[in-house]
Amino acid sequence: MKAIEINGNIKTFRRLPNVWEDANGLHTNFRKVADPKQYGFYDVVTPQYDKVSERLSAMYFDGDKFTYDVVAIDLEGTHDVLDEEGNVIETKPNYDIAELKASKIQAIKTEAGKLLSPTDWYVTRLAERAVEIPQEIKDERLDIVTKSDTFETEINALTTVEEVLRYTHAFYPQPSLDEVEPLTE
Amino acid sequence: MAITKVSNSVLKDLAVDTQNIVNASVTNSKMAANSVDSDQYVDGSIDEAHIADDQISYAKLSGEFTTSSVISASDIDFAAAQVFTKTLTGDTTFTFSNTDIGMVKDLVITGDAVITWPTGTKIAAGTYTGAVSNLIQVVVTAAGEYWLTISQEQV
Lengths: 185, 155
Prior knowledge:
The complex is a heterodimer of chains A (185) and B (155).
Chain A: E1 2-6, E2 9-13, E3 19-22, E4 25-28, E5 42-45, E6 54-56, E7 60-61, E8 66-67, E9 70-72, E10 78-82, E11 88-93, H1 97-116, H2 120-129, H3 135-157, H4 161-166
Parallel strand pairs in A: 5-8
Antiparallel strand pairs in A: 1-2, 1-5, 3-4, 6-9, 7-8, 10-11
Helix pairs in contact in A: 1-3
Chain B: H1 63-66, E1 68-70, E2 75-77, E3 83-87, E4 92-93, E5 95-97, E6 104-110, E7 115-117, E8 121-125, E9 134-142, E10 145-152
Parallel strand pairs in B: 1-3, 2-5, 3-6, 4-7, 8-10
Antiparallel strand pairs in B: 6-9, 9-10
């Protein structure tokens, strides 16, 4: 990614534009320019950062590149809520841990529902016509419900906002590429 | 007493000078055919009324409208040719000279390099492609204002 500062504003480009106009004139075939820095274009360097607990500052030019500062997010902090006259009417946490937990649990329940949905007809058939559900289907549905309950318990046991934000779950984890055996002829 | 007229044989050769001819008295019939050449016209005296319709042929146009010229450096002299060609060997900054409103010139440019056009240049259509020849038409729409239309051979 490239960027240029124009009248105090930074404009970013996924790659150099093919046509560029500046005080020197109109440049065509601009992507072929040997040294974009001569025209004010510099690389954008994004530092590594933890997307849960850190964020990037506004982009700035540091002399030979455009970059960001990494800023820690105050996950457990609070902020004031002001009325129209600027008076503090309430102090709220930046992140409501109860809302975060509820949101995660709701997402898990929704996912569990989608996983159960393909076999719901077995349950309907049992209720309507007393046709027994095959054992493997029973096991599969129980596994989904059990995992959902386990995830919910784990989430409710978390004590900090950061723990909740970092919490991930997987009903059926996908193997990593390292674990996948290549196809043989 | 009767007046005896002077005959042609009495006049000495080259004896009749301009003061002996009454102003505005030399008529068209007194002039030989094809006897007036460009030296007898006052500069700028031939106006539109004295050119018959449909008479300006391609051959009568100056080289500015009929010739092709290789751009040796980077200036494109609009008074020099109609078509300009150049193969770029590196980034090039073109300048325009002797431009007038309404002029249209054709450039055939090849070469995968950056071209910088004069300030006031706009692109009406097309993209420069370094790998092939580019036909670039330049129209002068105002003083210091140029519109480019860039196209390539359709293959």
